[in-house]
Amino acid sequence: MKNILFFTLYIIFFAFLSSLVFTLLYMQFDEQPMLALNKTIKYGAMLLCMVFIIPAMKMRNIYDRRLAGYSDGKPEFIKNVLKGFALSCLLSIPLLFLFSYLNIREIDFNIAFNQSFIYLILLTVLISLLISLIEESFFRGLMIQTNNNLILTFNIVLLSSFIYSLFHFIKIPLIMVDNLFWNTGLNELSQAFYNFFKTINIDAAITLLVFGILLGIIRVRNKTLSYGIGIHAGFIFVIKVFKKNSSVDLDSSNNFLISSYDQFTGHLATAWITILIFIYLIFLNKKVQ
Of 81, 146, 155, 282, most Cβ neighbours within 10 A? Predict the structure, then answer.
């Protein structure tokens, strides 16, 4: 539990530090750089978190790659990530079918399989892997430490998944200010936290919570992040590619099953992931017996 609190505050601290540092850097340019300030603050916070992660891990006495979920050798790690990625894509097919069958999203079958499409797929895979690597390292690797107490372990998985879900809704809006001040980024980030409960999408948050629980169970069961990184990356990949090649049917009576957050998460995705959790738990139970 202490690790969850520590690394939650750790991320928030560097988010505020990033908002200050990069606002000051932006003030040195005569024209606004290509990357918007709100995006720079976001990626800057990630960068700062990664730069100072080793001292933080030493402070928490978890400076051991096995404790952080990296217990596999390199060949096995890569193999498990690929297996998790393929499994995630495969298990997403029934959900995609339901989106189409219930007339929630209309799939564009006129996909041009040209060179640019292949490059787009490869880029999406790389982005998905990078996002999952960062998020799994924090929310499942550092926050979840294995424990012999089943109830305590479940509470840790639940709380870390809750934090993981909430962090998706802390977003700084596009900052278009002609005259920046040293505290512009700080003010915008503070407003993002202040308006948090107004911007959160409950149905999407529940989907992310349930997905986090699934990844947490896999992390605890296998004592490694490799499978979770692959599954997480596969889920992101499917969302990005499917949304790119489909559109929401605005006239459908089943649109309440998807969230306005991203038109993908929502009640239907939550139900499917919940089913996967139960199937996995039944599989584990039979394996123990």
Answer: 81
